[in-house]
Amino acid sequence: MIMREHEKIPYDSFAFQEYWGEGMRLPSQSNGLDRWFFQWQWRNSSPTNDDVESDQPMVTESGYYASYVIGAQWFDKAKTLPLVVTTKYGSDRIDFLKMFSVCFNSGIASKEFSKIYEVDMEQPRIKAPELKSVLSPLIVAHFLSVVKEIVRRGLKKDYVQREENLKKVKGHIGILRNERINVLKKRYDKVFCHYQEYSEDTVENRLIKKALKFSQQILQLKGVSESLLPLQHTVHVCLAAFANVGDQIEVWEVKTIKRHKIFREYDDAIKLAQMILHRYDYSITNITKAAEEYCPVFWIDMAMLYEHYVLGLLRRAYGSKIHYQVRGHTGYPDFVCYSPNIVLDTKYIPRFERGGIDTYIVRQLSGYSRDKWIFPTKPVTNIPCVVIYPVEGKEENPFKDKRLEDFLNVEDQCLWNFHRIAVPLPTLTDAQ
Predict the structure, then answer these.
(1) How do beta strands 2-4 and 82-86 pair?
(2) Whether 200 contacts 245, CB under 8 Å
(3) DSSP secondary structure letters along 109-151
(4) Widest pairwise Cα distance in the chain
(5) What Å distances lie between residue 383 and 249, 324, 342, CA to CA?
(6) Given pLDDT bands bounded at 50, 70 and 90, which one contains residue 252?
């Protein structure tokens, strides 16, 4: 069943109320967050003018409604009812690669980005061609950001078991193999040896390199575009750093690799590399097949993705002047600028283009602007509050070559010192 964000789930919600209860809450939530894939809501549809005149009752449309989260899930316990949620604008139109690359260039930590999405490889896959342009680029972009950090710090080395037919004894002799390939064939100048070598060619590094090869193929399928150029460059740089590492690894080796408590980047890279290989059944030839129409169970929090996308755009334009998630007595505003003093908050609510700002948002941002923990020095005037919201449009950075205070010229018609900035979601062109 295909639907869009915030729409009512077409399945009989009442039949599954005992199973889902309030709905499907997203795991690993930070304090103060209340995020859902879908949630039970009591809604009454407003009657038309004709209905009011004829005293028709309000129409109840209660049931499970999708949140601002896209992805694919099984709606029933037997896993026979698939639920595919796409964006309001259509997932095939949004340039997710552009959003992901901007997020990673903003300096977001891999651990933080992991909170934006989650993938479950254990459940049966769901046929969702509408989302085929979303998941693979997301995992690849995340994987490359982690591997880039590994390359920067240097590849981990370890003792690797080697077997080789040598002219001199090294390590210890493999007696049975030596007799079979040397003694019986009267090759007395060779000795088959087992030995250890301190090398970068570890199982973990071979897994990462193989996933880099997969990533290279995936990015080539998407075509050459501005969004892909930074990621393709990152792949080339990373592969060059893995030049002394092989890419031959067996499936059983992939599944037995243990996590590292010390090398946290390797822990993330291994998990993501396993996802990439599992996604295509460990066969690089499957990348070009229609298998991408089937995706694993996953979700992406579009509100958090949009928040980090805007963070990347702001930091590209204003650098260190933008402070993210400053701790305050009243909460954590998305962005704070101290020169000049401005509070900015992203709201993944497209209707801001048409309607007014909700009262709870006004109270939230007003609290931030008067918070002594956020602004220790008492301001001379009220601190401007800015709501940033998505629209369809060009994928340019609206902050580029502009001062942040230039956006404060237009004030909300109902509120003092409240302003709105529309930051477009990047969309794919017909050429792409």
Answers:
(1) parallel
(2) yes
(3) -HHHHTTTEEEESSSPPEE-GGGTTTHHHHHHHHHHHHHHHHH
(4) 105
(5) 58, 17, 6
(6) confident
Compute the Cα dihedral for 431, 104, 221, 242 and give only its sign. Answer: positive
Q: pTM of the predicted model, to two decimals?
A: 0.81
Q: What would the pLDDT profile of 374-401 be if each residue is shown by its tens digit?
A: 999 888 888 999 999 998 777 678 898 8
Report the candidate in 242, 244, 398 with the shortest Cα–Cα distance to residue 309.
398
Is residue 411 within 8 A of residue 417, CB to CB? The reply is: yes
Structure tokens at 34: 């209340």
Pairwise CA distance, residues 19 & 304, whole Å: 28
Degrees to nearest 5, angle at CA 205 with 202 and 206: 85
Q: Which residues pair with 161 in a beta bridge?
A: 196
8-state DSSP, 180: I
Distance between CA atoms of residues 345 and 343, nearest Å? 7
- For residue 425, count other CB atoms closer than 10 A to its CB: 24
Residues 177-235: pLDDT tens digits?
888 888 888 888 898 998 888 888 888 899 999 999 988 888 887 655 666 777 888 89
What is the percentage of the chain residues whose pLDDT exceeds 90? 21
Strand-pairing partners, residue 420, are 387
Inform me whether the pLDDT recorded for 31 exceeds 60: no
> Rg (Cα) of the chain, in Å, rounded?
27
CA angle 306, 312, 313 (to 5 degrees): 90
Q: Cis omega before residue 333 (within 30°)?
A: no
CB 321 within 8 A of CB 339: yes
The SS3 call for residue 268 is helix
- Count of Cβ atoms closer than 10 Å to residue 345 Cβ: 21
Burial class (CB in 10 A: 0-12, 13-18, 19+), 170: middle
Helix (H) or strand (E) segment spanning residue 295: strand 294-295
Give the 3-state secondary structure of residue 228: coil
> Which token pair is 280?
């295509």
Task: Decide: 83 and 73 in contact? Cβ < 8 Å.
Answer: yes
Work out the burial of residue 383: count CB atoms within 10 Å of its CB; fewer than 13 is exposed, 13-18 middle, 19 or more buried.
buried
Q: Please choose, from the candidates 322, 315, 326, the residue with its C-alpha nearest in 3D space to the C-alpha of residue 338.
A: 322
